[in-house]
Amino acid sequence: MDVHDLFRRLGAGAKFDVKRFSADAARFQINFFRNKHKIHIQGTDLPDPITTFQQLEQEYKINSRLLQNILDAGFQTPTPIQMQAIPVMLHGRELLASAPTGSGKTLAFSIPILMQLKQPANKGFRALIISPTRELASQIHRELIKISEGTGFRIHMIHKAAVAAKKFGPKSSKKFDILVTTPNRLIYLLKQDPPGIDLTSVEWLVVDESDKLFEDGKTGFRDQLAFIFLACTSHKVRRAMFSATFAYDVEQWCRLNLDNIITISIGARNSAVETVEQELLFVGSETGKLLAMRELVKKVANVIQQAGCPVPEYIKGFQKLL
């Protein structure tokens, strides 16, 4: 007699009230789903994950054009970080999310931002996204432009601080909605007298690749972030930090500075995304190493060009060095 036979005999004739245990059954299903997709979440009053993008239409009333843009861009099924981070942000919760590079973090914060802003409004910037490098900021900017096509949102990126001060300053028309930038350029504008940019209408402040920002001069960036936070004076402002690794410094800072935070991590902490193929290449000598690096950078540049995107400056820099 195995354990299943034992429980069947012990439970023979017993009657269970299905309604009484329906909530527990639903919670079990949700936890099973999270475990299946390696979604680890901590906090209180946790929103349930979504399983499809169509669910956003049924439960959260997503703009039909936005949903169609997402599907047309080839995003048929949400990734684990999107499954959980999107509903967390749609519930207005502050968030620290960690998922491997290539797991879809940009879409995980772009979709809820566009959904919560609903439509363009001449109130100035209502969402601010900070990225550690100009190349990453450009990538986020392109992604937002792509999925928001036809919705009317005005999405901007700071290229030159002097031009931005005239465009986004206190005398501007405020006909813009979302700003993507690096921290240094934003701080430069905020420190002008009067400030070269107004962040008093910001409802969502997202810091992407926050672990990288903390690595590059930890104390300095904390001071910058505090300065930016103080400039976002709206009572509606919510903050979300996304990173590829679950850095201790970032986690501690978030627990001290964010309100009723929810933390999400996907897979084993600080691991590479499963779709990345890792290969060990024996090169034999320093010359062989140089040749292998040159070939690798060339392949990366070709893939980027074939995707119809401009090759980042740092890739071109590598090509010149090699």
Automatic annotation (TrEMBL):
InterPro entries according to UniProt: DDX52/Rok1_DEADc (IPR044764), DEAD/DEAH_box_helicase_dom (IPR011545), Helicase_ATP-bd (IPR014001), P-loop_NTPase (IPR027417), RNA_helicase_DEAD_Q_motif (IPR014014)
Can you give the residue ranges of the Helicase ATP-binding domain? 86-264
Q: What reaction gets catalysed by this protein? A: ATP + H2O = ADP + phosphate + H(+)
Q: Where is this motif: Q motif?
A: 55-83
A Pfam short name: DEAD
User: What is the primary gene name for this protein?
Assistant: DDX52
User: What family does the Swiss-Prot or TrEMBL record give for this protein?
Assistant: Belongs to the DEAD box helicase family.
Query: What highest taxon heads this organism's lineage?
Result: Eukaryota
Instruction: Indicate what this protein is called per its UniProt record.
Output: ATP-dependent RNA helicase
- Record's function text: RNA helicase.
What organism is recorded for this protein?
Ictidomys tridecemlineatus (Thirteen-lined ground squirrel)
The GO molecular function terms of this record are:
ATP binding; hydrolase activity; RNA binding; RNA helicase activity
